[in-house]
Design brief:
about 60 residues; little secondary structure; two-stranded antiparallel sheet; 2 strands; about 5% strand
């Protein structure tokens, strides 16, 4: 018997205001009107004012 993989839709929430972000507008949060930034190493959300990822310590450029 083959097992079926269950694909679950990932809910995405803004790390700044905690509102759910629609997949169509990702990575732009319509509630707080910001673009969500991610760490280039671990791909976790990073606050806009940080220069170092709080999760993995990677340098954030730009």
């Amino acid at each position: 018997m083959a097992t079926k993989k269950k694909l679950e839709k990932e809910n995405r929430f803004c790390p700044y205001c905690d509102e759910e972000i629609a997949e169509a507008s990702w990575p732009y949060c319509q509630a707080c009107q910001v673009t969500v930034f991610y760490c280039p190493e671990c791909r976790k959300p990073v606050p806009r004012d940080k220069r170092v990822c709080p999760s993995c310590g990677a340098a954030i450029k730009g």
